[in-house]
Each structure stands twice: as structure tokens, then as C-alpha cells.
Amino acid sequence: MNRVRSFAPVARPDARVLVLGSMPGVASLEARQYYAHPRNAFWPIMSGITRIPADAAYAERLAGLLTARIALWDVLQSCVRAGSLDADIDDATIVANDFAAFLRHHRRITHVFFNGGKAEAAFRRHVRPTLPAAAAGLHYRRLPSTSPANAAYGLARKAEHWHTAFAALPD
User: Fold this and answer.
1) How far is CA 96 from CA 26, 100, 118, in A?
2) CATH code, 2-167
3) pLDDT band with cut points at 50, 70 and 90 for residue 97
């Protein structure tokens, strides 16, 4: 098994929402793009939120997130994992990203949305205890994973949950 490493965050200083995955899968790591697996529902769902076509160039999709004040990152900086599944992450090898520094530079973030249960669990275990007291005021919400491995939810059901979360954000 190899140690895999995440990407840099995609964020502007005025971001108000932070969407967190756990660790990019093999297809994303090979493409060097967030959510690159063709069956991952992330970009189709974000298309409905940002109005940027899901098949637009990657740079355009990222720009759409930034314009919508959505930041994108992963909880894990690195870990040992065979394949792409979150279930295959060796928990003893987890190194979390530096969220204390990130949040100091992105003070307008009010909501953190987790893309699935592993992202939320890893954040609560490895990140939350290291955050300053001010981070307790953030609103945290787990959303259904957009991964094709989350077969319990179809695209429409995933999209409904994600759209509801974004629609509830204050202006």
C-alpha cells in the first residue's frame, strides 16, 4: 500500500462554505483534479448549485465554486490506502490538513459540509480537537457522499440533500 496525498485547497478569502472530502480517489489523484471519477456525482450536483455545466473545463468548474464562495478541500493531507475506498484508509496512518491555519485565512467561512461519513468522522477525530474555540461556532453538516460507491443514494436523492443544504445558507 502506498501513502497518498491530497491536493491544495481551492478557496478565496471570502469563502463562506467549506466542502470537505476525505481523500481523493485513484482517478482524481491520477487526473490531479478533485472528483475526477466519471461516475462521481459531485460536479453534476455542483452544476445545479453554481450553474456551471458539469462538463465544463475543470478550471471553469473551480472558478464557479470560487464565485459562489465555496471552498473545496479534504480532511486528510495524507494516509495509506489501497485503492479508492474510504473503508480502505489505514486510520493509524492519517495525517490531517492544517485547518487552524486555513480557518485563520478564511474567516468568513460559516458552514462546513462533509462529503460523506468518513470525511466527517476523520474531521471530528483528527481535526476538531486541534481547532481554536472560535471554530465551535461553525455550522457542520454531513451530506451524502457523492462517490459512486454510495449506491444507497441515487443522483437525484444526493442532489436533493446537497441542494437543500446550500439553499438553507444565509445570504
Assistant:
1) 19, 11, 13
2) 3.40.470.10
3) very high
